[in-house]
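ok trying again, last paste got cut off:
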Amino acid sequence: MNTARLRDRVSASDPGLLRLAAGLRTVVAIALTLAVLGLLGTSVPHLVAGAIAAMVATFAIREKQRAQQAVTLALGLPVAVASMSLGALLSSRVLAGDLFFVALIFCAVYGRRFGERGTTLGLIGFQVYFVSLFVGATVSGLPALYGVLGVAFLCSAAARFLLVPETPAGLLERLREAFRVRLAQLVSAQLRLLDAGPEEIDEALKDVREGTARLHETALMIQGRLEEGTSDAAAARLVQRRIADAEITAERLGLLLLSARSSERADTLTLHLPGAPAPRADRMPGRDEVMATVRRDLEALRLLVLSPVAARSSTALSQVRNRLLGYREEENLPPAPPAVQDVFRGVGEAARAVLGLRIALDGPQDESDDSPATTRSREELDAEDAVIDAREADGGTQEELTGLRRPTTRAAVQVAVGSTLAIVGGEFLSSQRWYWAVLTCWIVFINTASTGEILVKGYRRLLGTVLGVVAGIVLAGAVGQHTWTAFALVLVLVFAMFYTAPLSYTLMSFFVTAALGLLYTLLHTYSFSVLVLRVEETALGAACGVIAAAFVLPVRTDRRTNDLLVTVLERLDEVTEAAVDQLSGGSPADLLDQARDLDQALADLRAATRPLTHPITPLRARRDTARYVVALLETCAYHARSLAATAELLPTHPSIAADPRLRRAGRRIGDNIAAIVAHVADERSTARVETGPSIASLLETEVPGTPRFGRITDRVLRHVQRLDETLVGLARPLDVPVAAPRR
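nice, full thing came through this time. structure:
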């Protein structure tokens, strides 16, 4: 049991074991290279060169398919040989070497426009040239270095394809397991929210929010691996649908629990900003009578999520599943206040989503102990599966940017200018180790797109380098000249570097610098002054990168965030319009694909606003505004996802019917999104956000005595109403004028 629990924790903290696999694969490649070179009696400088080359050849590969990885690795070897040769040939020709280095950097960054393979080959070319400078490659030593490179690339291939293999299907399976564990953790957090007292409510709600965000993160990771990891497009579409169902029902269950605790209806879990009022910690209405039942059912839901394959056919588990699915029928709901009955309905919908996920991932289930409610749920799932097709979403056409407007060209020019400044400045600091400044300038441009992002990344790298220098001094003094002890510590630090890289750039820089301190020791060039020089060169390289980004074809953080904000709003409009149209009786659309496009656009915006929301930013008002806008957009995204999921059920769900009146209700949302987009794109726009009667009032029937709408339509209206209210709220921080309600 303890082993299973530990495995679940590791799976949840590292979805798909991506960080663990990356660290292990790189360490194994380096260790294997060192072992082979050690048996061949290679010198220490060549051992260092082989270790760095193996690391580069391993982490640079980005393709998902093994065949593509093999081709890129094979192409990378001649690129590495050419780069090493030119590094050795130009080592004695300072001006020619510097000019070639700048040209190489430009080409390496420009290569990003050719996709993952272009990015990888550019990275290998740059890093191997850096290795030639680091170990002092000479023309006479080239034959031996060619052999070192060959061994490094072969060992990298062995680690990737034989010793630590990764197949798309296997990775997807691990991501599914991570989703299952994170779903169970979210239910556990919801249990704590249920039991939390007035002093514990804030912490419990924070756990639910974090659990919801982590589940959403895993769902996006699965989405990115579906095409390669499933047998066909129909299977991918089915898994995508079931993952989305489970994610949305779990998030809705948290909202229903929060609403049941308070006299006010909760509209989102994500809108929680500094200074915002805490949710009321009222005791749940009817708590003393139904608390035990609600807790029991949440624990049963968690059991369903965590149950292993062997236990899914047990009678006890079947009874639990039947009871939870029974809550989808009105006659099976326990007597309780309306808000609490909504919780029971939410549990039933979550149990149905778990059942659908099990069927999609593991195939048909044992049906011998099914209750009538469970049978109906299975029939609904089967009907949905029957209409899922593999048609490709029409991505449309995008404007092709040319010349200096193309991001890769702009970045290549910027990093070339920054590297030129770094070379000139680095030569003044040290004629032997000026390349550290160039390396830092190069690195701060990787995966950044605005001046603010480069500034934050440069600051984090400098901080990690300073701390790493201290650690390097301690470690170098401890190992002395014990070669293999130092290499063993380098392997530990390399693993830590790759394991922490997605979590903290500062930590990654710390481990890199500490490892370099050990490598300097092995090359007999270690001294306190060398490590201090490392800090100086890093600061210089970061400064050159910022200067180039700020003055050469600059992309201001405000401009980038505005562009991404427009993209998010356009994706939101597409999802909302398509979902409302389908719920109104329109033609079906690929709503889940559109919802994931919205999620990805929001993730890009969230990443781009990090410089604005960084704790050290002096612009406090702008930081709070950025946080507030992103939180409002997260609210909109949740309601849009929910609308999309409900609309996807329309063709097969017996309790959902199209309501043509919804089209009229959603029209105002589209107009308001268009007004906000127009104002963000052009501040001189005169477009206004319209307010008026509630969305529900727009569905009032003109025939006396006709029912207004049912429970499912009421749920849809809640999402549409919250979208409408949130968009009006979004207008204020964006300075979009709001028109007075029409009388």
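cool. The chain has 26 helices and no strands. The CA atoms of residues 234 and 390 lie 5 Å apart.
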